[in-house]
C-alpha cells in the first residue's frame, strides 16, 4: 500500500500545469498617492494655493495620477469620477470644474485634471474638494484597503484637494522680513508671492533663508515692482498706501 | 536476480577504475613576466611629458601587449564620483604628456603587461603626482580665425601654449572670446578665474584652467542679458565684487557669506541705466559707475544696498557728475594708496570725433572740501589716444600709458601732452597691456600666425621705460587680446 502511495506522489509531480500569460482578475483603477503629501494634509490629500501665482492667473489644473490593475486595452476606457458631497465644501463651476476622464488605450496610467477656479471667495477660506472613483462598465471593481507609507490603510479610490487663495502674514515679518520688504500689507505679500513663487520666508529651522537670499528676493521684487508701476497704475495696498520695497 | 544485478553494476564500476589515463603531465616553465622600474612614484607638472622605461624580463618578451593605466579619474562636476580607470598609453615605454588634473594626492599608475598567448596580466604598481605651473603667472587670451585659446607664462617666463584647449578639448573657446580675468573676490568664492565671450563665459579651475561651470551659474538667476564684460571689487569698503554684465551691475554680498550674485541693481529713477563696464570705489562711495545711456555717474547706495543712486546736483565741483555727454573708454585707479586711491581716472571720447578727455574722481571725497568730481581736462597733444587697447595709470605719479599701433606712449597729465617711450618694429602692433608692480606687461602681434609676443617693460621713476628696453620677451603666441596676472 505504501509503495502505491509513493508511486502516486511521483506521478502527480509529473502533471503539467498551464500558467496563464495574461491577467485574469477584474479590472480596476486607483489613485497613486504621493508619500510626500503626508506632510501637507494626508497622503490622500493635495494642497494648492493661488497665492504665489501671478494675478493674471484665473484658473489652474491639478493633476491626479491614476493607474489600472489588469490589462490594457486598445481603446480608451471611461473613468468615472464623482464628488463626495458630504466631504466637500468647494462650489462646482465657481471654485472648480470636473472634466471627462478616460484611460487611454494601451496605457497603464494617466492623469485626471481638475480645474480649480480662482474665485474671490478663496481669499477668505480654504475649499475642500473630495473626489471618488466610481465603478463603471470598464472598471467595475474598486481597490481594497492598502497599507501606505504613513502606516495607515487607504482604499485608493478617493482623493482630497484642499485649495485657497488666502494669504497668511508670515510670523517673522515684523521682526525680520520688514528689513527687506518694509511694512506689511496683504497686497504687498500677494505681489511678492506672485513674483517669487513663494509666500513664506523662514528665518530659522532647516529651510531658513540666509541674508543674501532674502536680499536677492528683495532686489528682485523691487525691480519687478518698478516694472509693474511703469506699466500699470502704481500698486496700492488695501490701506490706500503705495506699495514700496525698501 | 537482484543480487546479480548489483554485482554486475559493481563490476562495471571496478572496471572503469582500471582505465588508463593518457593525460599530459609534463611540467613546462610558464612565461612569468617581471617588470622593474627605478622608482615607483613620480612627480610631473600638468602638460609635461612623463617618461618611464621599465625593464621587462621573462621567457618570451616578444608576445606581450602593454597598458599604462591611471586612476581614479573623477568627474570635476560630481563630488561623489568614485572615478574611473583611464589608459593613457599602449606603448612599452611611457612617453606621454600628462593632461591629468593637478592635485595633491597621488594617482595610481599601473603598468599592465599582458602575455598575448596565455592571456595572463602582470601588474607593476606605481604612483604619480600631478602638479601645476598654472597657479601663478600670466594668462593670455589669444584670438584666432575660428576659435580662441588661453596660453600661460610662468613667473620664470616659461610659455605654455594652448593650455585651455588641452584642458578642455570638448569645450572649445569661441572666437568671440574678449577677456580673461582672475579676481580675488574676498568672499567664499575665493579667486575666480574666468573667460568672457559674446553671450557667455566660463569659470576656470585654478590649477588646470578646466571649465568648472558657465558664467550664469554664478548668479541666483541668469542675468536678463548675458554679456559679461567685467568683475571688479573697486573698494575695500564696498560689499562687492560687482559683475558688470549686459549694461547692468550685479552684486555679491560677500559680507554675509553669499556664494551667488543677486539680481541686477535697481535703477535709480525711471530713466533706467546702461552701465559702461568699469567701476571706481573708495571710502565714501563704495562703487561708482557710469551710466552710458544717460551720460551720468551713479553710485551704489552703500551698506547692503542693491540700488543705484544718482549723485545730488552740485555746481561747485569741477564737473557735473550727472552730465558727462561722452563715451567712456576706461575708468581705472590711479594716484594714491592701492586700498583706497584718491584718484580714479576716467578716459572719455567725444561721441562724434576722436577728441578725448580725462576726468578724475575721488571716491574717498565729498561734495565740498574733497570733491568727488575732482578735475577734468581735454587730452591734448596725444596722438591716437582714442585707439589704445587699454589705458594704464601710475599709482605714484600723474601719468597714463597708452598704445597705438607699434608705439607705447606716456601721457603727462600736468603737461597735458604725450611722448613715445617705446617703439616696436613696424607692423608689430600693441594688442594688450597691463601695469603691475612697476612693470608694463605688453602683448604685440605682427599679423602672422605665431607672431604674438609678450614684453616686460620696467617703468622708471620718470615714467620712461628703464634703460629704454624690455627685460624679458616671450614669443610664439597668436594675437593676444587680453591678459591678466593670475595669483593662485
From TrEMBL, chain A:
InterPro entries: DUF4843
Superkingdom of the source species: Bacteria
Pfam families recorded: DUF4843
Descriptive protein name: DUF4843 domain-containing protein
UniProt organism field: Chitinophaga costaii
Lineage summary: Bacteria, Pseudomonadati, Bacteroidota, Chitinophagia, Chitinophagales
TrEMBL record, chain B:
Top-level division of the source organism's lineage: Bacteria
A UniProt-annotated Pfam family: PKD_2
Protein name listed in UniProt: PKD-like family protein
Highest classification ranks of the organism: Bacteria, Pseudomonadati, Bacteroidota, Chitinophagia, Chitinophagales
Amino acid at each position: 500500500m505504501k509503495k502505491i502511495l509513493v508511486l502516486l506522489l511521483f506521478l502527480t509531480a509529473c502533471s503539467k500545469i498551464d500558467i496563464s500569460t495574461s491577467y485574469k482578475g477584474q479590472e480596476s483603477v486607483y489613485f497613486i498617492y504621493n508619500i510626500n503629501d503626508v506632510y501637507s494634509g494626508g497622503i490622500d490629500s493635495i494642497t494648492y494655493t493661488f497665492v504665489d501665482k501671478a494675478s493674471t492667473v484665473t484658473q489652474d489644473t491639478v493633476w491626479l495620477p491614476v493607474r489600472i490593475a489588469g490589462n490594457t486595452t486598445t481603446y480608451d476606457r471611461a473613468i468615472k469620477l464623482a464628488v463626495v458631497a458630504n466631504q466637500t465644501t468647494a462650489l462646482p463651476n465657481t471654485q472648480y470644474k470636473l472634466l471627462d476622464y478616460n484611460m487611454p488605450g494601451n496605457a497603464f496610467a494617466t492623469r485626471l485634471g481638475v480645474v480649480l477656479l480662482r474665485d474671490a471667495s478663496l481669499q477668505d477660506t480654504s475649499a475642500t474638494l473630495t473626489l471618488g472613483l466610481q465603478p463603471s462598465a470598464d472598471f467595475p471593481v474598486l481597490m481594497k484597503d492598502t497599507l501606505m507609507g504613513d502606516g495607515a490603510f487607504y482604499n485608493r479610490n478617493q482623493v482630497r484637494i484642499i485649495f485657497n487663495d488666502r494669504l497668511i502674514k508670515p510670523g517673522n515679518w515684523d521682526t525680520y522680513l520688514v528689513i527687506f520688504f518694509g511694512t506689511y500689507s496683504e497686497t504687498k505679500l500677494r505681489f511678492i508671492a506672485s513674483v517669487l513663487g513663494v509666500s513664506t520666508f523662514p528665518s530659522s529651522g532647516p529651510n531658513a533663508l540666509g541674508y543674501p537670499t532674502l536680499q536677492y528676493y528683495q532686489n528682485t521684487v523691487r525691480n519687478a515692482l518698478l516694472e509693474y508701476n511703469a506699466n500699470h497704475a502704481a500698486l496700492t495696498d488695501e490701506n490706500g498706501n503705495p506699495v514700496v520695497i525698501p | 536476480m537482484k543480487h546479480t544485478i548489483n554485482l554486475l553494476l559493481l563490476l562495471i564500476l571496478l572496471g572503469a577504475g582500471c582505465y588508463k589515463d593518457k593525460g599530459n603531465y609534463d611540467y613546462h616553465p610558464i612565461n612569468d613576466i617581471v617588470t622593474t622600474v627605478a622608482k615607483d612614484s613620480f612627480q610631473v607638472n600638468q602638460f609635461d611629458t612623463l617618461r618611464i622605461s621599465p625593464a621587462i624580463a621573462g621567457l618570451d618578451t616578444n608576445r606581450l601587449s602593454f597598458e599604462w593605466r591611471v586612476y581614479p579619474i573623477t568627474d570635476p562636476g560630481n563630488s561623489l564620483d568614485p572615478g574611473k580607470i583611464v589608459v593613457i598609453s599602449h606603448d612599452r615605454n611611457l612617453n606621454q604628456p600628462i593632461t591629468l588634473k593637478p592635485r595633491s594626492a597621488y594617482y595610481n599608475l599601473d603598468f599592465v603587461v599582458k602575455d598575448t598567448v596565455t592571456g595572463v596580466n602582470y601588474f607593476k604598481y606605481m604612483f604619480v603626482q600631478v602638479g601645476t605651473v598654472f597657479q601663478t603667472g600670466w594668462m593670455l587670451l589669444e584670438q584666432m580665425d575660428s576659435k580662441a585659446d588661453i596660453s600661460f607664462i610662468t613667473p620664470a617666463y616659461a610659455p605654455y601654449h594652448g593650455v585651455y584647449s588641452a584642458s578642455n578639448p570638448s569645450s572649445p573657446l569661441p572666437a568671440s572670446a574678449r577677456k580673461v580675468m582672475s579676481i580675488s573676490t574676498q568672499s567664499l568664492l575665493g579667486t575666480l578665474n574666468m573667460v568672457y565671450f559674446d553671450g557667455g563665459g566660463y569659470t576656470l579651475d585654478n590649477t588646470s584652467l578646466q571649465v568648472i561651470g558657465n558664467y550664469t551659474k554664478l548668479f541666483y538667476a541668469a542675468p536678463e542679458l548675458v554679456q559679461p564684460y567685467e568683475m571688479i571689487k573697486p573698494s575695500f569698503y564696498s560689499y562687492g565684487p560687482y559683475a558688470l554684465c549686459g549694461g547692468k551691475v550685479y552684486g555679491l554680498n560677500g559680507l554675509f557669506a553669499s556664494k551667488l550674485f543677486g539680481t541686477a541693481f535697481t535703477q535709480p529713477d525711471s530713466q533706467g541705466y546702461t552701465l559702461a563696464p568699469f567701476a571706481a570705489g573708495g571710502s565714501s562711495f563704495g562703487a561708482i559707475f557710469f551710466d552710458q545711456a544717460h551720460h551720468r555717474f551713479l553710485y551704489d547706495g552703500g551698506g547692503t544696498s542693491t540700488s543705484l543712486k544718482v549723485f545730488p546736483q552740485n555746481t561747485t565741483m569741477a564737473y557735473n557728475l550727472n552730465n558727462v555727454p561722452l563715451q567712456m573708454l576706461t575708468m581705472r585707479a590711479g594716484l594714491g594708496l592701492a586700498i583706497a586711491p584718491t584718484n580714479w581716472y576716467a578716459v572719455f571720447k567725444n561721441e562724434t570725433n576722436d577728441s578725448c578727455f580725462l576726468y578724475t574722481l575721488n571716491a574717498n571725497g565729498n561734495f565740498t572740501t574733497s570733491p568727488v568730481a575732482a578735475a577734468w581736462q581735454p587730452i591734448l597733444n596725444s596722438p591716437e589716444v582714442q585707439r589704445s587697447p587699454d589705458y594704464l595709470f601710475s599709482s605714484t605719479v600723474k601719468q597714463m600709458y597708452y598704445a597705438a599701433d607699434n608705439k607705447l606712449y606716456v601721457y603727462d597729465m600736468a603737461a597735458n601732452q604725450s611722448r613715445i617711450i617705446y617703439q616696436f618694429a613696424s607692423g608689430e602692433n600693441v594688442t594688450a597691456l597691463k601695469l603691475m608692480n612697476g612693470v608694463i606687461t605688453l602683448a604685440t602681434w605682427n599679423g602672422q600666425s605665431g607672431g604674438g609676443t609678450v614684453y616686460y617693460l620696467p617703468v622708471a621713476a620718470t615714467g620712461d621705460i628703464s634703460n629704454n628696453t624690455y627685460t624679458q620677451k616671450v614669443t610664439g603666441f597668436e594675437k593676444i587680446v587680453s591678459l591678466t596676472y593670475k595669483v593662485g
